[in-house]
Design brief:
- The chain has 462 residues and is α+β, with helices and mostly antiparallel strands.
- It has three domains: 63 residues, no CATH class; 273 residues, no CATH class; 35 residues, no CATH class.
- Helix content is 35%, strand content 22%.
- Helix 6 packs across helix 8 and helix 9 runs antiparallel to helix 10.
- The radius of gyration is 28 Å and the shape is globular.
Length: 462
C-alpha cells in the first residue's frame, strides 16, 4: 500500500518541535527524489532508525562486559550504575534501610546539600587587577579535581546498622580522636576571632531561601519584587545540621564551636566500594592513553559519576498520572493526593502524589559523598593553598563543585610558596610534600586554547 501511495501534501511535513513547515525548495526536492511514501520512510529508517539500533546494540554489548543487561537490570544509566556499584561492593558490608526509622531518613533528606557554585570575585585580569587590593594579578589558574565524587565513593561510608546513641559529655572528644564514627545533628558556628580566617570561603554549606530583599541593588534591577529562590551558600553558622563525623572532626580541628547536639547515630567505618573506584579509574586512564579505549573510558566516567546519585532518589516526588473522562473529574479532584491536572481535548490528565512508596535505597551513601566532596574542597583551600601561600598572593575567583579558579600574584607557582615551607620535609595535611604536589600538578598542566590573553591555566588535582 505504501508503494502505491503518493507523496503527501506539504502540510503533512509540519514540524511540531520547531513549529515550522518544510520549505518550498525542500518539498520540491522530496517530490523529485521519491516516487512514493514507502521510499521516504525507507530512507528515513536507514538514515535515522538503523544507526540508533546499532548504537543500542553496541551499548548493550558494552554493559554485557561488566555483567549487566540493559534490558533487565535498569532502564537508565543511573539505575545500571547503581547495580554495578552493588555488584562490586565488599561482600561483608551492608547498608541498613529506614523501615521503622522515618525520623532518621527525614534528617538525611532535609540536610542534603548539593553541588556548590560560588562566585568570590567577579573580575580578575592579568596585569590589570589586584589581589585583595594589593599585589598585581599575574596569573589565573584553574584547579580541577577530575574525579572528586569518584574519590568520595571510595572513602569509608556509613555502613551497617543505624545505632542511635545517647548524647554524652565526651561525644565531641570521641569524634576528635576518631573513636566515634557516624553522623551528628548539632548547631555549628565560626567564633568571632576566626571569622577573618574563614572570610573568603565560609566553611558551612547550606540551602537557604533567598528573597528580593537579600539581593544586591544591581541584581534587584533584573528581577521582580516577588522573587523567591532556594540557593546553596557558604555560611559562618548552621542550625540543626546533620554532619558526618569526618566533616565534624575537621570543623573541630579548625576551631569551630559545636553546640546543641540533638541527635547522634553510630555506624561501622568501612570502605566497601574500592573495587568500583579502581575499575572505573583504570578504564578512564586507559581511555586517556589510547583512542581505542576512549569510548569505554567515557562510559565508565559516566558510571562513576552517576552511581551515588541514584541513592538520593526522592520517591516523595514520584507521581501517578491518570487520563480520566468528564464523569470521573469530580472524583479525582477531591482525592487527598491530588497535585494538579490539565485539560485535554477529550478528558483530563491528573497528576497524583504517591499514596505510599518503598524507600529501598541507602540515602546515607549519597549523603556521605556530598559531604566528603565539600570537605575535600575545604581542605584544598585551607590545608593546601592557604597553608602554603600567603593570602596577599592569591584570591579565589570562583568555585564550582569540584574546581577552583584562583588569581595569583606570580606566574611561577613555586615562587608563591612561603619561604619557610619550601623545605623537602614540609608536609601538607593531605600527606604529600609540596615538591611532590608541584611536580604532580605541573606535569598535568594543559594550556587552554583561546585563553592566552587571560593567561589561564588548568591544573588537575587528583
Amino acid at each position: 500500500m505504501l508503494k502505491q501511495s503518493s507523496i503527501p501534501e506539504k502540510k503533512w511535513f509540519y514540524n511540531d518541535l520547531t513549529r515550522s513547515n518544510v520549505s518550498d525548495c525542500n518539498y520540491s526536492k522530496i517530490k523529485s527524489k521519491y516516487d512514493n511514501l514507502f521510499e521516504v520512510l525507507k530512507d528515513y529508517n536507514n538514515s535515522d532508525v538503523r544507526p540508533a539500533v546499532e548504537a543500542a546494540k553496541k551499548l548493550s554489548q558494552f554493559f554485557n562486559t561488566i555483567s549487566l543487561d540493559i534490558h533487565k537490570d535498569g532502564i537508565s544509566i543511573t539505575g545500571l550504575s547503581l547495580k554495578y556499584l552493588w555488584n562490586t561492593k565488599e561482600n561483608d558490608v551492608e547498608f541498613q534501610l529506614f523501615k521503622g526509622n522515618e525520623e532518621l531518613y527525614q534528617k538525611y533528606r532535609d540536610n542534603l546539600v548539593g553541588r556548590p557554585s560560588i562566585i568570590f570575585n567577579h573580575y580578575q585580569e592579568k596585569d590589570k587587577t589586584q589581589i585583595r587590593g594589593g599585589k598585581l594579578c599575574k596569573r589565573i589558574m584553574g584547579f580541577d579535581a577530575n574525579a572528586l565524587y569518584l574519590w568520595a565513593i571510595g572513602q569509608p561510608m556509613l555502613c551497617g546498622d543505624h545505632q542511635r546513641v545517647d548524647i554524652h559529655d565526651n561525644l565531641l572528644s570521641d569524634v576528635l580522636n576518631g573513636s566515634f564514627y557516624g553522623a551528628i545533628e548539632c548547631d555549628i558556628e565560626v567564633p568571632d576571632h576566626l571569622k577573618s580566617y574563614f572570610s573568603e570561603m565560609q566553611p558551612v554549606f547550606k540551602n537557604v531561601d533567598i528573597s528580593f530583599h537579600n539581593l544586591s541593588s544591581d541584581t534587584q534591577k533584573q528581577v521582580k519584587t516577588s522573587y523567591q529562590s532556594k540557593k546553596l551558600i557558604g555560611s559562618f553558622f548552621g542550625k540543626k545540621v546533620l554532619l558526618i563525623t569526618d566533616v565534624l572532626q575537621w570543623y573541630l580541628q579548625k576551631g569551630l564551636i559545636v553546640s546543641n547536639i540533638t541527635y547522634a547515630v553510630r555506624y561501622e567505618k568501612k570502605a566497601p566500594f574500592k573495587s568500583f573506584v579502581d575499575t572505573v579509574s583504570n578504564a578512564r586512564r586507559a581511555g586517556d592513553k589510547s583512542t581505542d579505549y576512549k569510548l569505554i573510558g567515557e562510559m565508565m566516567k559516566l558510571i562513576g559519576n552517576s552511581a551515588y546519585g541514584k541513592c538520593l532518589t526522592n520517591f516523595e516526588k514520584h507521581e501517578t498520572v491518570k487520563i480520566v473522562s468528564e464523569t470521573a473529574y469530580n472524583k479525582n479532584i477531591r482525592r487527598n493526593n491530588y497535585k494538579s491536572h490539565e485539560d485535554l481535548i477529550e478528558g483530563y490528565e491528573f497528576h497524583l502524589r504517591k499514596s505510599s512508596f518503598k524507600q529501598c535505597l541507602p540515602i546515607q551513601v549519597g549523603f556521605a559523598v556530598y559531604q566528603l566532596a565539600k570537605l575535600r574542597m575545604l581542605q584544598f583551600y585551607y590545608d593546601f593553598i592557604d597553608y602554603y601561600i600567603d593570602r596577599s598572593d592569591f584570591e579565589y575567583c570562583e568555585m564550582d563543585t569540584d574546581s577552583a579558579y584562583i588569581a595569583f600574584s606570580s606566574a611561577s607557582f613555586e615562587d608563591l610558596v612561603k619561604p619557610c615551607l619550601k623545605q623537602p620535609s614540609s608536609k601538607t595535611n593531605m600527606n604529600c610534600s609540596v615538591e611532590m604536589i608541584l611536580m604532580k600538578t605541573f606535569c598535568m598542566i594543559n594550556e587552554l586554547p583561546g585563553c592566552s590573553n587571560w593567561n589561564i591555566r588548568v591544573i588537575r588535582v587528583c
